[in-house]
Amino acid sequence: MNYMTKFFTSFSVDPDTKCWEWDALTHRQGYGWLHFQGKYHLAHRVAWFIFWGRMPQPKEAVCHKCDNPKCVNPDHLFVGTQKDNVADCIAKGRARKGHPIGSKNPRAIFTEEQVRNILRDTRKQRDIAREHGCAESTISMIKRGNNWPQLFAEQNT
Hints:
Elements: H1 3-8, E1 11-13, E2 20-22, E3 33-36, E4 39-42, H2 43-52, E5 61-64, E6 77-80, H3 82-91, H4 112-120, H5 125-132, H6 136-144, H7 149-155
Antiparallel strand pairs: 1-2, 3-4, 5-6
């Protein structure tokens, strides 16, 4: 199946938002994923190519006006820099600063009590990560205060 056929059979239209929701393979961050020109690309970048005639440059971001990572509707996309994308995020109130913290954050994989235990744990990070079924880097980020900084500060005062 060629990429055009795959593209046009891999989304459904949301009647309310008019987003073209990608129904096929997705990237771990929720974006559509499509094999194109010999490798996998984000589907919204391929949409830009199909509808606007050029593949975005590697340093160009294809941003979503609709803030829906699965959307491939060309009318909902615009090209800009990463700086433009971040400014758009902040202007729409989606910046990290506005996200719930701790276990109220939908991306949290630990409870506050688990994090407190991790911070007190003196074993090797590798062993802690194995016990919790996560990456060693996740434990490292907690131990350094990059993740869960409020509990890191509480533990180190």
